[in-house]
Design goal:
The chain is built from ten helices and six strands. It is of the alpha/beta class. About 2% of the residues have low confidence. Strands 1-3-4-5-2-6 form a six-stranded mixed sheet. It binds adenosine-5'-triphosphate. Adenosine-5'-triphosphate binds next to helix 2, helix 8 and helix 10.
């Protein structure tokens, strides 16, 4: 069994073009992560440009942190190893040393490689948290030691990219290992419009559909909320069609809106 999911660059299926807004985060990622992965020789001239070995993406849920991490790997031609709380369970428990070493050894073998740690607060949260299991503590120590090992060879094209909704829960020693911390915040109206356009780029839209208008009605929505809203709206014509068909005669087919979709706005114009 694999301890984490490994995705080759050609199979990630997400590029920066699929991510709306977040222009500043994307450009910083290009400079501090992607370029050093692709052209490490450019960064060998001095101490100040040594490639970073840790980048933290933090911000509210559903704002595109996972998408960004995947896009970084695919656009820089790097392999992507995803380590999440789900790969932590029994496989890691009690065998921390072995698995963490295997993870970093694998990353080196398949370099260039991005090790993505989703919900990093669950994996590398504060050590003083009450009730912390001894095995968990050992795993953290191992992880940090292996991470420090990355710094001995600055140009080996392996780095840790981590994401969290709760940066305040992170161990300080972990935060120190991620000198670049990028906030991935909820979008404002202009950015919601950009995200809507990306989500809807291959859809048939009602005449007169206006992304800016929907953006102005969705204050507080994350990219993920906007996606769910669009899914809910996309079901509307199907529902209308079935209703018309039902009116014409009985039918046993029913379509319902996905449970997760917020129902605040109507995209059908
Ligand atoms: P979490 O913190 O809950 O893990 P996250 O920040 O990692 O969330 P993602 O998993 O990257 O968020 O985003 C969830 C989904 O929301 C994506 O699969 C995508 O469909 C949509 N989404 C979020 N942000 C954007 C965006 N900026 N552009 C386009 N789609 C987006």
């Amino acid at each position: 069994k694999l301890l984490a999911e490994v995705i080759p660059p050609g199979e990630v299926g997400i590029g920066f073009g699929d991510i709306g807004a977040l222009d500043n985060v994307k450009s910083t990622l290009r400079e501090v992560v992607m370029l050093p992965l692709k052209r490490p020789e450019l960064f060998m001239r001095g101490q100040l440009t040594k490639p970073t070995k840790g980048v933290l993406l933090f911000g509210p849920p559903g704002t595109g942190k996972t998408m960004l991490a995947k896009a970084v790997a695919s656009e820089s031609g790097a392999n992507f190893i995803s380590v999440g709380p789900s790969s932590l369970g029994s496989k890691w428990f009690g065998e921390a040393e072995k698995y963490v070493k295997a993870l970093f050894t694998l990353a080196h073998k398949i370099a260039p490689c991005v090790i993505f740690v989703d919900e990093v607060d669950s994996l590398l949260g504060r050590r003083d948290k009450s009730g912390e299991h001894e095995a968990m503590r050992k795993m953290k120590t191992e992880f940090m030691a292996a991470w420090d090992g990355l710094r001995t060879n600055q140009y080996d094209r392996v780095l840790v990219l981590a994401a969290t909704n709760r940066p305040g829960d992170l161990d300080e020693a972990v935060v120190r290992r991620m000198p670049r911390r990028l906030m991935v915040d909820l979008p404002d109206a202009a950015n919601r419009a950009k995200i809507l356009k990306v989500i809807l780029k291959e859809e048939q839209l009602a005449p007169g559909f206006n992304a800016e208008e929907v953006a102005s009605l969705t204050d507080g929505y994350s990219g993920s909320d906007l996606k769910n809203l669009c899914i809910a709206a996309a079901y509307r014509p199907i529902r209308d069609f079935l209703a018309a068909e039902n009116a014409a005669g009985p039918s046993d087919l029913e379509v319902s809106t996905p449970a997760a979709a917020p129902a605040a706005a109507d995209l059908s114009g």
